[in-house]
Amino acid sequence: MNWTATAAILLALAVMLGAFGAHSLRGRLDAYAMGGVYEKAVFYHFIHALGMLIVANLPRIGIAPAGGWVCSLLLAGILIFSGSLYALAITGARSLGAITPIGGLSFIAAWLLLAVVLLRGNPGA
Question: Residue ranges per domain, the chain?
């Protein structure tokens, strides 16, 4: 998989969803759904897509590659964490919040895996 292209698409999507929230959802969502949920989804989406872009390019700047596992975990985190928060904010279905922590665990696992790979100098992980 081309993780750099995937990250670029996710970054564009984060900007689009942020703009959608600011222009189309403002006034339709209450303060909790907008500020507490939707904006948090956009923030985590953006930060982790940017992280994926960096991780995907580590080999190009001479740092041990982190491999597809880190990027896969970041993608899963964006889809599950941010995706569930987007859906929660828009639909109000609080039960969607039950899967959000799985996405958070995926983010944590990605960053810890990257740390282990870099500390061990394992280029194949």
Answer: 3-120
